[in-house]
Amino acid sequence: MELDSTSLRLLGCLIEKEMTTPEYYPMTVNALTAAANQKTNRDPVVVYSEPEVLGGLDALRELGLVRAVSSPGSRAVKFKHAFTDVLEIDGEQAALLAVLMLRGEQTSGELRLRTERYHHFEQLAAVEEVLHRLESRRQPLAERLERRPGEKESRYRHLLGGDPVREPAPHPPPSSPAEPTGELENLHARVAELEARVARLEGTEDSAADNPRG
User: Fold this and answer.
1) Distance of alpha carbon 103 from alpha carbon 10, whole angstroms
2) Backbone dihedral region of 146: left (phi > 0), alpha (psi from -120 to 50 degrees) or beta?
3) Distance of CA 176 to CAs 18, 28, 171, 183, 187, Å?
4) Neighbours of 176 (CB within 10 A)
5) What residues contact residue 205 under an 8 Å CB cut-off, 6+ apart?
6) 78 Cβ contact list (under 8 Å, min separation 6)
7) Is the pTM of this model over 0.85?
8) Could you give the 3-state DSSP secondary structure of residue 188?
9) Residue 182 — left, alpha, or beta (φ > 0 → left; ψ -120 to 50 → alpha)?
10) What is the DSSP letter of 159?
11) Residue 139: what are its φ and ψ, rounded to 5°?
12) What is the C-alpha to C-alpha distance for residues 92 and 123, in angstroms, rounded to an integer?
């Protein structure tokens, strides 16, 4: 399956909002545009226009991955994904793939922290077990990447479209003292917690766009 970057972003947003703010799902084009253009929990940050979002939705609908639905009392057409049904995957797998679509290559530790709002993984081993299932499919949906120079952990990426160019890992200056691993882990955890708080706030703002009056 080869999805373009716009379609991947939209599909990731639909999965994210279904799992994190189900009361505002399915989503209107306006709300989906706002979600795709969020400045947090997205890499890269983009600025899609409404016509671009509509084009991405059309591509997803042709593949059967997105469906248009109508709600009683609402004149706006809304959209929902059919990703889990079409690819026959469960919620754990969908959560990891959504974060990979929205954030790019990540380590299993980063994935565990960033999927907390989607699905709670008790241990890192649980994340790695689900990633292994995605890798082991007849048509793999994710893969583990070789560690680059300077990296301590392997990263994972989805296989739903494109082959992003990996930038070489920066080499630390020879004279730089090594940072304690424990401090780095604590820092990463604090950053992830702050990201989750900001995401919850932005989810509230996005919901306003998906709740038209009248």
Assistant:
1) 13
2) beta
3) 44, 50, 10, 16, 19
4) 8
5) 34
6) 26, 27, 28, 68, 69, 70, 71, 210
7) no
8) helix
9) alpha
10) -
11) -115, 95
12) 13
Note down pLDDT in tens along the chain; length 214 residues.
799 999 999 999 999 999 999 999 999 999 999 999 999 999 999 999 999 999 999 999 999 999 999 877 778 899 999 999 999 999 999 999 999 999 999 999 999 999 999 999 999 999 999 999 999 999 999 999 999 888 899 999 999 995 544 444 444 444 444 445 455 555 666 666 677 666 666 665 555 555 555 4
Secondary structure (DSSP) of 44-60:
S-----HHHHHHHHHHH
Reading the block at residue 84, the tokens are 């889990």
Q: Which two tokens stand for residue 21?
A: 């703010």
What gap in Å lies between CA 61 and CA 32, rounded to an integer?
A: 15
The vertex-202 CA angle with 200 and 206, nearest 5°, equals 115
From residue 4, alpha-carbon distances to 18, 106, 113 in Å are: 21, 20, 26
